[in-house]
Amino acid sequence: MDRRQFAATLASATAGLALARPLAAQASMPSFAAMPRTSPLLALRRALAPTIDAGRLNARLAELATFGARTDGGVDRVAYSPADLAARAWIEPLLRDAGLTVRRDVAGNLIARREGSDPTRRPIVIGSHIDTVPAGGRYDGTVGVLAAIEVADALRASRTALRHPLEVAIWMNEEGGLVGSRIVAGELQDGDLDAVAVAGVTHREGITRIGGDPSRIHEARWEPGRIAA
Ligand SMILES: [Zn+2]
Asked: pLDDT tens digits for 137-162?
């Protein structure tokens, strides 16, 4: 939330407060429980609470659907394709703008992190993928990723501290065999990378294309128990 948005939120909360008073006065039996609803402190707290910007989320879903857009309304954005590469380049700044520190692991997964207030806590991981099956839809995977970015942005804008670190994961080539997530799980062997992906190149070539290093995929593995959830 930038300053202007914050002011708007605060203004609407104040307007809500002004409305809440006559409504409370109209109630035939004003109960004690109803009183905090008119408390300026609660209104302020509500104004400062993390808020999802649904309009922005929708606009981003529409924009992401332009990468590999088909004339029938679907999306063709198989992993390692030019559309996939362009979409990945488009989404990285969104992760940064949401206050996250972005890293691309050697498999090509994008892992964007926000630190927690308690350094002993393990991260909570949210996210999904932005590659699609051939002739795929607009929402599979993309909702998971863009909603996760929206969560991070809402936390940043409201200056909400979480005890746990938060990580937004964008798994690479999820639709072509859960490739990125299986590398992280330690389930893919070096030889598996010679299989040819839907984009017509081997996973080895594809991972190189998206900036990973297929010769070091073992380094992308997460130890069991690395994350909290
Ligand atoms: Zn999916």
From this structure: 999 999 999 999 999 999 999 999 99
The answer to whether the CB of 96 falls within 8 A of the CB of 102 is: yes
Does residue 91 belong to any structural domain of this protein? yes
Return d(Cα 112, Cα 98) in angstroms, integer.
10
**Ligand 1 centroid – CA 76 distance (Å):** 13
Q: Using the mean position of ligand 1's atoms as its centre, give its distance from the Cα of residue 141 in Å.
A: 5
pTM of the model: 0.81
Domain limits for position 21: 3-48
CA of 36 to the centre of ligand 1 (A): 43
Residue 10 Cα to ligand 1 midpoint, Å, equals 38
Q: 98 and 149, same structural domain?
A: yes
Give, to the nearest 10 degrees, the angle between helix 54-64 and helix 82-97: 160
Give CA separation, 176 vs 48, 50, 77, 181, in Å.
41, 35, 11, 11
Residue 137 and residue 76 in contact, taking contact as beta carbons nearer than 8 Å: no
The CA 164 to ligand 1 mean position distance, Å, reads 26
pLDDT value for 38: 72
Note whether 140 and 154 are same-domain residues: yes
Ligand 1 centroid–CA 120 distance in Å is: 32
- The C-alpha atoms of residue 77 and residue 63 are separated, in whole angstroms, by 13
Q: Is residue 229 part of a domain?
A: no
Residue 29 Cα to ligand 1 midpoint, Å, equals 52
